């Protein structure tokens, strides 16, 4: 069919063939609907809410704004890659223990953004954390519990050094 | 619809020569919104994000060359941010961290929205847009590049490859007004550049193109005493008079005129106090 193409995406270290996909499909759509990876959430489809945040080649981006067919030869990391063996990461644990999850819709995007922040900066100050999460909208929590979870992870990681 | 992913500039210029009707894609933050909402269904796309040449940055003493695919995140800080303070401030106001990791000058120039955050800076710094085709590269001053709302002088067989931003001797700054801090499309924006004894002011989101306030600039140039009281107020109202805003879904013309008055005055005062 015209306008359709086969390509391969590397997601969480695994090569995933994408067959006969319309080229205009976003990475978010392909992850959710074609590759069975529905952890990244779709809400605004215009890069405003951050619930579809994934990390591509080391940059946190909105997967709804990535044309999937252009993400070949890139390393794509999604929320599904964080606890592949069933053990939650420290960020995921902290979101639970600090009560940072209410409806949960924004959580995968926020967890990806927090991991991305802490990989490049292991002791960010309050403004840096707020800035790093400014592209992720949560309409339940008011952000207090989310920032508390980030603080808890920072404290744990600093104590464990 | 076909997606081409050239790996070199040569490959890209060959592709666009063959497919001048193709839509050029860099970060995707403009095009994909239109595709997601079924406003646009491009038949051919040339994705420029994986071309090494478009990611290069060269910092010289008198100018900086920024590759068209360099993301805003890179302009916010570091050596590049420090060399071009107004561009760093403008980059910092673009979208969210996720958008700044993807968006680039190439995309802002290609879309050429009057609300494009980097564009007032490129105007006030007298930047040059590099347009490359199979036949070579031509450099176009920003003032001749943007010719209308979402219209520019790029020819169908050309690719925006880089921007030369001259460095200036003096303070420069950028400010914008929107409804919140993150993720906001500007309602009004301004860039003020002092270069030796010259003043330059460019306005965004208040006209069909970026507006250079040449009357205000010339008025300032003619002043005998540039530091006298009342100059900053006059700068604000003159810049506001040069704006040509409209009412739209984002704001009103009246409010935009007011915002420009405040922004231009405030930026001018910031510059004078340094």
UniProtKB/TrEMBL annotation, chain A:
Gene Ontology MF annotations: 2 iron, 2 sulfur cluster binding; metal ion binding; oxidoreductase activity
Pfam families xref list: Fer2 (PF00111), Fer2_2 (PF01799)
Residue ranges of domain 2Fe-2S ferredoxin-type in the record: 5-82
PROSITE patterns, A to Z: 2FE2S_FER_1, 2FE2S_FER_2
SUPFAM superfamilies linked: 2Fe-2S ferredoxin-like (SSF54292), CO dehydrogenase ISP C-domain like (SSF47741)
InterPro entries: 2Fe-2S-bd, 2Fe-2S-bd_dom_sf, 2Fe-2S_ferredoxin-like_sf, 2Fe-2S_ferredoxin-type, 2Fe2S_fd_BS, Beta-grasp_dom_sf, Diverse_Oxidoreductases
Name of the protein in question: Unannotated protein
Keywords from the UniProt entry: 2Fe-2S, Iron, Iron-sulfur, Metal-binding, Oxidoreductase
Phylogenetic classification of the source organism: unclassified sequences, metagenomes, ecological metagenomes
């Amino acid at each position: 069919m015209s306008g359709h193409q086969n390509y391969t995406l590397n997601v969480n270290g695994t090569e995933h063939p994408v067959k006969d996909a319309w080229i205009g499909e976003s990475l978010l759509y392909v992850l959710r609907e074609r590759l069975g990876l529905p952890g990244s959430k779709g809400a605004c489809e215009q890069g405003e809410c951050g619930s579809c945040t994934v990390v591509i080649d080391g940059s946190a981006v909105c997967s709804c704004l990535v044309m999937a067919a252009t993400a070949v030869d890139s390393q794509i990391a999604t929320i599904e890659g964080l606890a592949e063996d069933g053990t939650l990461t420290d960020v995921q644990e902290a979101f639970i223990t600090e009560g940072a999850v209410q409806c949960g819709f924004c959580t995968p995007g926020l967890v990806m953004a927090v991991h991305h922040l802490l990989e490049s900066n292991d002791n960010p100050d309050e403004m840096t954390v707020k800035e790093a999460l400014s592209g992720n909208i949560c309409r339940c929590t008011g952000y207090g519990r989310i920032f508390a979870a980030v603080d808890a992870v920072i404290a744990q990681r600093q104590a464990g050094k | 619809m076909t997606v081409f992913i050239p790996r070199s500039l040569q490959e890209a210029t060959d592709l666009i020569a063959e497919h001048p009707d193709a839509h050029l894609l860099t970060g995707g933050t403009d095009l994909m919104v239109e595709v997601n909402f079924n406003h646009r269904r491009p038949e051919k796309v040339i994705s420029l994000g994986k071309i090494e040449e478009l990611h290069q940055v060269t910092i010289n003493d008198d100018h900086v060359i920024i590759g068209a695919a360099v993301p805003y995140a890179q302009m916010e800080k570091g050596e590049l941010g420090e060399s071009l303070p107004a561009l760093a401030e403008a980059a910092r106001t673009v979208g969210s961290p996720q958008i700044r990791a993807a968006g680039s000058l190439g995309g802002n120039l290609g879309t050429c929205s009057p609300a494009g955050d980097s564009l007032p800076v490129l105007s006030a710094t007298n930047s040059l847009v590099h347009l490359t085709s199979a036949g070579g590269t031509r450099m176009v001053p920003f003032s001749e590049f943007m010719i209308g709302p979402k219209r520019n002088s790029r020819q169908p067989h050309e690719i925006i490859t880089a921007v030369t931003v001259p460095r200036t001797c003096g303070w420069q700054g950028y400010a914008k007004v929107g409804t919140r801090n993150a993720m906001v499309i500007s309602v009004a924006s301004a860039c003020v550049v002092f270069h030796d004894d010259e003043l330059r002011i460019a306005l965004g989101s208040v006209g069909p193109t970026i507006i250079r306030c040449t009357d205000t600039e010339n008025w300032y140039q003619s002043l005998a005493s540039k530091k006298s009281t009342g100059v900053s107020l006059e700068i604000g109202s003159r810049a506001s008079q040069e704006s040509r805003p409209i009412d739209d879904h984002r704001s009103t013309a009246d409010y935009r005129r007011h915002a420009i008055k405040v922004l231009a005055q405030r930026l001018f005062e910031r510059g004078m106090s340094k």
